[in-house]
TrEMBL record, chain B:
One of its GO terms (cellular component) is plasma membrane. It holds the Pfam family BPD_transp_1_N. The chain crosses the membrane at residues 12-30, 100-121, 133-161, 173-192, 232-254, 274-300. It is a multi-pass membrane protein. Belongs to the binding-protein-dependent transport system permease family. It comes from Phyllobacterium myrsinacearum. This is Oligopeptide ABC transporter permease OppB.
């Protein structure tokens, strides 16, 4: 009896010691608000940023972005590029392992890239890897998957051959489509390889639990090559579609990070704690294409006049509370290899001067007051902010030219289906977010052969020729110059009116350390910690 | 009784068939498809996707294939939540919706009947006006207002309850979404009960019961209530079907991992199979609860008893 009592006492003592010691032993958990439920964790199917945040914690590509948004070696320790710029040889880290402890091999990358290009996989982003030799042919069933230009020289050496020199190829490799998958796990589990308990990753974290629409938990991967520097034990992603609800949960202290809160909350949040509100310009452009096939939008003077008459400052400041920035170029600012984009020539004029010039141009073209009547329909996808933008623009055009402007909205799927299938329109809303930090990604939208993305069907042989030349140019400085010339043409002809540069909005609690704002919007949890 | 149930269940099969057929074709009339996103897909990718999901085949072929699979319980893959089949998505989400909806239903039903009865007994008193004003507000104020207001008060200001999420499923997490979900229905039940109770209290048999000198409690609960509950019971079927299959609004505001949001997400994203799955789910709930209500009716009102 006394022995038992003693035992009990010892247990109590031990227990109290453990409780006393628990703050030091407490798990470091980051509660990360993600603005929606991931549609998939399969690298061949993912397409959106909220999925990228998760899959990039679970898997690591050959190259990754650091906390400040700079490209650094990931699973590849180093690489060599052949003199003609078409053969890349990657040396994988000796200690790069999967979460089950097995080594990451070059063969895994070969398998993953072949899978992405295999037409049977129907990967949504297969075109990201089209610069790889035969990738496009494989994806279009014109070549066998074995012909893809990706080869394992030995277990830790990977050779990738390109169709042509691609100056932004290293950036492309950090895209989620280029993440490796574990060949053994895929062969064993098939499509289920993405599920908790089965997913084998090579990232800093491994998948622990996933309750769709509630939370997704990842835990530190002890087999990760850089595990010693990973400070978090767990990251819990919360899919919060309701932006206002996300802010409330943040204010209630349930979340440490919130991605994309609603812009009408920004003033209030800034007043409460300005330091926690992070607004960074994003690699994304909000623009209005004109249908260059239809009158009067086939007239460059009309397009320029309409574009000039839009007061972008009003849109950005009054509608978006400064969470977007006025923009006068298609390529967003902040691209390291491009510098300042080529802006429209009216960018530096005052809004009043622009309106005077716009009126003159419109008269010259024979439209507006005293000329032919100007009727315009603005199409946009249903969304309160897009509606406010369209209403404001309609008002500006009415005031400037006496135009009769009508609005027309469809839900997002119908809106884009209509534009992508070549439907005729006057003016429409569109947006583009960079897949990789290169101006080509934006300028390519206006190439005449780009039937799907070139909504306005702008066709300018001079522009097409410059773009073609840019693909062949190997000197980065020369290439940037050519692309600047190409963008200048777009800004002269205004087949699209660039309106705003998107911003990424984050709420970052004071206790989160290691956070870096960057235009690429890359925020791997491996760099973060909580206090 | 047994034959009645059997007959009703047998008639559910053609009903479901018609529901499936109409929604299948209606869905396809909507412009756009599951892969027309803000981020446009190149034609080659689109072609691969259409082939992978058999969307490139003639529509009647897809329809027959869908029917054939649905009979065996295979409702296809989700086009949007690509890692899951429809059966998996609904299977994972439904328990959450049903649990939350069940509590909300109990709260709405009992709360509504009690409040409505009190109002009827104190007809035209201050209490009556108060209850009915609150009930009117309950019906008219949408839950996308009630939900955020509740969180602001109880989670952000008072820090008493969590602002959202399912957590460990304890009452602390459920109470706010339950109230937001139940309130409009509670108001409906209260109004229905009050109306029929007032009517019931003026009938001959109640006057007779009172004349016999029965205690007021017995008169109200055993005699008046029985007749007054008939309209309440008929409202129970659509109400239960709606609450148990989840609410897109409440689930989104409180981040409840239920199936309610799939109705909206499926339709907006043209996730054909997801829409079909949710339509079938609701149809089944409506059919089952209508049956339950018919049986309850028989218990309350001998005139409609099913022999």
């Amino acid at each position: 009896m006394s022995f038992m009592k003693l035992n009990l006492r010892a247990a109590l003592l031990l227990g109290s010691l453990m409780i006393g010691a628990s703050p030091a032993l407490a798990e470091a958990v980051l509660h990360r608000g993600n603005s929606g439920e991931p549609q998939t964790l399969d690298q061949s199917q993912t397409s959106i940023d909220i999925e990228a945040f998760i899959v990039k914690d679970l898997y690591e590509g050959l190259t990754i972005y650091d906390a400040m948004g700079k490209i650094v070696p990931g699973t590849a320790e180093s690489w060599k590029v052949s003199d003609d710029g078409t053969v890349y040889t990657f040396k994988l880290r000796d200690n790069a392992n999967w979460s089950d402890g097995t080594p990451v091999t070059a063969e895994d990358f070969v398998f993953s890239m072949r899978r992405v290009e295999d037409p049977k996989t129907a990967a949504g982003y297969a075109n990201i890897l089209y610069p790889i030799k035969n990738a496009e042919a494989v994806n279009k069933s014109k070549a066998k998957v074995e012909e893809l230009g990706v080869k394992a020289i030995d277990a830790k050496t990977l050779e990738i051959t390109l169709e042509r020199p691609t100056p932004f190829f290293i950036e492309l490799l950090s895209h989620q489509t280029a993440l490796p998958i574990n060949k053994a796990s895929f062969e064993k589990n098939g499509a289920d390889f993405v599920k908790p308990g089965k997913l084998v990753g090579n990232g800093a974290f491994k998948l622990l639990e996933h309750v769709p629409n509630d939370h997704l938990t990842v835990a530190k991967n002890e087999h990760y090559w850089d595990a010693a520097n990973v400070k978090l034990d767990k990251v819990i992603f919360y899919p919060l579609e309701d932006q206002a609800a996300a802010v409330r949960r943040y204010e209630a202290g349930e979340l440490d990070l919130v991605y994309n809160f609603s812009s009408d909350q920004i003033e209030r949040m800034r007043a409460a704690n300005a330091k926690q509100v992070h607004v960074t310009p994003a690699m994304a452009t909000y623009y209005y294409p004109f249908d260059t096939r239809t009158e009067p939008f086939n007239d460059v003077r009309v397009r320029r006049a309409l574009s000039m008459a839009v007061d972008r400052d009003f849109l950005a400041k009054d509608i978006y509370n400064g969470t977007k920035l006025p923009v006068y170029s298609l390529v967003p600012p902040g691209m390291e290899n491009y510098g300042e984009p080529s802006k429209a020539d009216f960018a530096d004029k005052s809004q009043l001067d622009r309106e005077d010039e716009a009126l003159k141009l419109m008269k010259e073209a024979g439209y507006g007051e005293g000329g032919k009547p100007l009727t315009i329909e603005i199409r946009y996808n249903t969304n309160p902010n897009h509606e406010r933008v369209a209403t404001a623009v309609a008002d500006m055009w009415k005031k400037a030219f006496g135009a009769k402007v009508t609005l027309m909205n469809l839900d997002i799927s119908s809106h884009y289906a209509y534009l992508q299938e070549g439907g005729k329109f006057n003016v429409a809303r569109a947006g583009w977010t960079a897949d990789y930090a290169d101006p080509e990604n934006f300028l390519n939208l206006n190439v005449s052969t780009n039937k799907t993305f070139n909504y306005g069907h702008y066709s300018n042989p001079e522009f097409d020729a410059l773009m073609k030349k840019s693909y062949e140019e190997r000197n980065p400085a020369e290439r940037a110059k050519i692309l600047h010339q190409a963008e200048a043409l777009i800004m002269r002809d205004q087949p699209i009116a660039p309106l705003m540069n998107d911003a990424n909005l984050w709420l970052v609690a004071d206790k989160v350390k290691g956070w870096g704002d960057n235009a690429n919007n890359e925020h791997l949890s491996k760099y973060l910690s909580v206090e | 009784m047994f034959h009645f149930v059997l007959r009703r269940l047998a008639s559910a099969v053609p009903t479901l068939f018609i529901v499936v057929t109409i929604s299948f074709f209606l869905m396809r009339f909507a412009p756009g498809g599951p892969f027309n996103l803000e981020r446009p897909l190149p034609p080659a990718t689109m072609e691969n996707l259409m082939k992978a999901y058999h969307l490139d085949q003639p529509l009647w072929n897809q329809y027959l294939q869908y029917l054939k699979n649905a009979v065996t319980g295979d409702f296809g893959p989700s086009y949007i939540y690509k890692d899951n089949t429809i059966a998996e998505l609904i299977g994972k989400g439904l328990p959450y919706s049903v649990e939350l909806g069940f509590y909300a239903l109990l709260l709405a039903l009992f709360g509504g009947v009690i409040v409505g009865t009190i109002a009827a007994l104190r007809q035209n008193s201050f209490l009556d006006f108060l209850i009915m004003s609150v009930a009117t507000i309950g019906v008219t104020v949408p839950n996308f207002v009630v939900g955020p207001v509740l969180t602001l008060i109880f989670a952000v200001l008072l820090s008493l309850l969590p602002a959202g999420g399912w957590g460990d499923g304890s009452w602390r997490f459920l109470i706010l979404p339950m109230i937001a979900l139940a309130l409009p229905q509670l108001a409906v039940f209260a109004r229905l009960t009050r109306g029929s109770m007032i009517e019931g209290l003026h009938t001959d048999h109640i006057r007779t019961a009172r004349a016999y000198g029965l205690p007021p409690r017995t008169v109200v609960i055993t005699h008046a209530m029985r007749g007054a509950l008939l309209p309440v019971v008929s409202y129970l079927a659509p109400c239960a079907a709606a609450l148990l299959t989840g609410s897109a609004v409440v689930e989104t505001i409180f981040t409840i991992p239920g199936v309610g949001r799939y109705f909206v997400l499926g339709a907006i994203n043209r996730d054909y199979t997801l829409v079909m799955g949710t339509v079938v789910l609701v149809a089944i709930f409506v059919i089952v609860f209508n049956l339950v209500v018919d049986i309850l009716y028989g218990l309350l009102d001998p005139r409609v008893r099913h022999d």
